[in-house]
Amino acid sequence: MGAERVVVKIGSSSLTDATGKISNAKMENLVDQMAHLHASGVRQLVLVSSGAIAAGIGKLGWMRGRYTLPEKQAASAVGQGLLMSAYERLFAKHGILVGQILLTRTDIEDRKRFLNIRNTMSTLLHHGILPIVNENDTVAVDEIRFGDNDALASLVALTVGADWLLLLTDIDGLYTANPQRDTGAKRISEVWEITEEMERMAGQPTSSVGTGGMRTKLAAAKIATQAGANVFIAASHTDDVLCRALGGESVGTLFHAAPKSLAAKKSWLAFGAKATGKIFVDPGASQAIGHRSSLLLPGVTAVEGDFAEGDTVDLCEAEGRLLGRGITNFSSRDLSLLLDRRREWRDPNRDGVKSDVANPMTGTAVDWLRGLEEVVHRNDLSLYR
After folding, report:
1. Do 357 and 282 share a domain, yes or no?
2. Which of 56-65, 153-162, 232-241, 310-319 has the lowest mean pLDDT?
3. Which of 10, 114, 124, 320 has the highest Cβ tally under 10 A?
């Protein structure tokens, strides 16, 4: 059996001091723990680290309360090298080489680039090199941002086929209420299913240097657990937190991997790919694809958006409820054309009788359907649970 793959995400609040600057003591403590796990040989580690913007702001000496997007990107350009230099120096003390990977959302959404990222990370891990991943803040804008490094970490876990995703933050897990406001709040040790009630309990970001909060961590946990990873949320300041969490100690909240996890390609379809349009289906088709059948043309009722053959689309019921995502064999233009032909074939002026005689350009109704039935193949379809 191969080594377990563990993705460790460290938030900005876990790396900075009270002034918002990078804390060398905090970094060294976390690196020592990861080095210990790496040295065991039974686990391969990937680090998703925040902190580039904070490092840059500290170096630049800025003291503003809020920053514009260009200012954050400029700070990241300064800070990313400083952050990597610090990690390289600290890991080198343990004889560990590191490699830097900077990503944007579009890198994950594009299937070829996604596969290249996966192959690069696998090669680094195979050679004992620890990948350090961060969002490419200097080029990322709202349209291509992950939004926060919790989301990035969950997609990295999906990319490398991780067994564990450890989210380190400034709070030791999921609570029944906000522990900063409710003294009766209790930590939840284990979660087998993320419910709507839990998502409502999750508050907004409380850290002045981070972009996420418990809500983003729950969203990350939903993605990673469906992809087959156990997720652990814990406080970075807990003594020896990484080893204790992986050793089974209750030092945070453990989210168990889904009993039936999605296959690698279907995980990417569900959570990594970007949908460029929607295909609406009737109740019969909804039931059929729910039993792992392909989506056939007769079950399609409408299309929305502009997409091409081979694009990823959302599959929706008539009222808009999202069923899943798939790779379409038809463009939106061709599907619309076929739906128009079907409406003409069922022209109410013919007293509701389906005619076997159609326009000579299209042949019979049966002819234009033959060979065109499969809109989304079941192997290219991922359903949301």
Report:
1. yes
2. 56-65
3. 10
